[in-house]
Design a protein that fits this description.
Helix content: over 70%
Number of strands: 2
Pfam families: BPD_transp_1
Family: Belongs to the binding-protein-dependent transport system permease family.
CATH topology: MetI-like fold
Strand content: under 5%
Shape: globular
Radius of gyration: 23 Å
CATH architecture: Orthogonal Bundle
Organism: Paenibacillus konkukensis
Order of helices and strands: HEEHHHHHHHHHHHH
Number of helices: 13
CATH superfamily: MetI-like
CATH class: Mainly Alpha
Strand order of the largest sheet: 1-2
Membrane topology: Multi-pass membrane protein
Keywords: Cell membrane, Membrane, Transmembrane, Transmembrane helix, Transport
C-alpha cells in the first residue's frame, strides 16, 4: 500500500465519527422527513401514501400563511437590527481596555437557555408590573404599552428579546473580523485626511463584508426557526399574532397529531431557507470583498 492511499485511509478513519453522527442525526432524519411529508399518519396507525396532498393543504391553510407572514416580519426586524448593532458594538469594543471582560458580558446571554431568557423577558415585558413599564412611568411619566398582549407589538417585542439575546454571538464574529483588517489601511486613510466616519464607511464595512455575509446567513436561518420565545412567552398569541412557522409545525405534529402535514410544513420551511441562502450567495458576488 503506497503512502498516499495509507494517508487517505487514516484521514477517513479520523473523520468517521463525525460522518457517522452526520448520517444518523442529520441525513437520515432529513430523508425521513421528506418521505413522511408524502404520507398521512397520526403517529400510531399505518402510514398512507397520499403524494403531494399535504403540500397542497399547507399552501391553502390560512394558519400556514399567517405563520409565514409573522416569521417574515420577525426576520425583517431581527436580522438588520441585530447585524447593525453587532457591528457598532464590535467597533466600539475593538480597542477598548478590558475588552475581554466586555466580550464575556455581551456573550453570556448567547449561552443562556432560551427558556430562561424567555421567562426573564416575560417578566420584564409584563404590562402591569414589568420593570420596563415601571421605569417608563417613573422616569418619563409614560404608561407603558401592552408588549405581549397587543397584536401589533408582540412580534416587535419578541424581536427585541432576540436581538439582545443574539447580539453577543454576532459581536464576537465582527470582533474577529476587525482583528483581520490591517492597520495600514487606516494609517493611509489618516494621512489622506479621511475622517473616522469615512474610514468606517470605506474601509471597515467593505473589509467586514465576508463576516457580515456569514452573520446574515446564520441570522436569517435562525430567525426562520424561531419557536421558544413565542411558545413560552405568548403561546402563539394573542389571536395567533406571534404564530410562527416552527410553532405551526409543532401544532400540527404534537397537538393535532397530523405528522404528514407537519413534515410537509417542515419541508417547505427547508425550501424557503435553502432558497434564501442560495439567493444570498448569488448576490454576495456584488458586495462581498475578500481583499485585505
Amino acid at each position: 500500500m503506497n503512502k498516499r492511499v495509507s494517508e487517505g485511509i487514516w484521514g477517513y478513519a479520523f473523520i468517521l465519527p463525525q460522518l457517522t453522527g452526520l448520517l444518523i442525526f442529520a441525513f437520515i432524519p432529513l430523508v425521513s422527513a421528506f418521505v413522511l411529508s408524502l404520507m398521512k399518519w397520526d403517529g400510531f396507525g399505518k402510514k398512507q401514501f397520499i403524494g403531494l396532498d399535504n403540500f397542497v393543504t399547507q399552501f391553502h391553510n390560512p394558519d400556514f400563511k399567517l405563520a409565514l407572514f409573522n416569521t417574515a416580519w420577525y426576520t425583517l426586524l431581527v436580522v438588520p437590527t441585530g447585524i447593525v448593532l453587532a457591528i457598532l458594538v464590535a467597533v466600539a469594543l475593538n480597542k477598548v481596555r478590558g475588552k475581554v471582560v466586555y466580550r464575556l458580558f455581551y456573550y453570556m446571554p448567547v449561552v443562556t437557555s432560551s427558556i430562561a431568557v424567555s421567562i426573564v423577558w416575560l417578566w420584564l415585558l409584563n404590562s402591569e408590573f414589568g420593570i420596563i413599564n415601571v421605569y417608563l412611568k417613573q422616569w418619563f411619566g409614560i404608561v407603558g404599552p401592552e408588549w405581549l398582549t397587543n397584536r401589533k407589538l408582540v412580534i416587535p417585542s419578541i424581536a427585541m428579546l432576540s436581538v439582545w439575546w443574539g447580539l453577543g454571538g454576532n459581536m464576537v464574529l465582527f470582533l474577529a473580523g476587525l482583528q483581520g483588517i490591517s492597520s495600514s489601511y487606516y494609517e493611509a486613510a489618516q494621512i489622506d485626511g479621511a475622517s473616522r466616519f469615512r474610514q468606517f464607511w470605506h474601509i471597515t464595512l467593505p473589509l467586514l463584508s465576508p463576516t457580515t455575509f456569514f452573520a446574515t446567513i446564520m441570522s436569517i436561518i435562525g430567525s426562520f426557526q424561531v419557536f421558544d420565545q413565542s411558545f413560552v412567552m405568548t403561546g402563539g398569541g394573542p389571536a395567533k399574532a406571534s404564530y410562527t412557522i416552527v410553532y405551526h409545525i409543532y401544532q400540527l405534529a404534537f397537538v393535532e397529531f397530523t405528522f404528514g402535514k407537519s413534515a410537509a410544513a417542515a419541508v417547505i420551511l427547508f425550501g424557503i431557507i435553502l432558497t434564501l441562502t442560495l439567493l444570498q450567495m448569488y448576490m454576495s458576488k456584488r458586495w462581498v470583498h475578500y481583499g485585505g
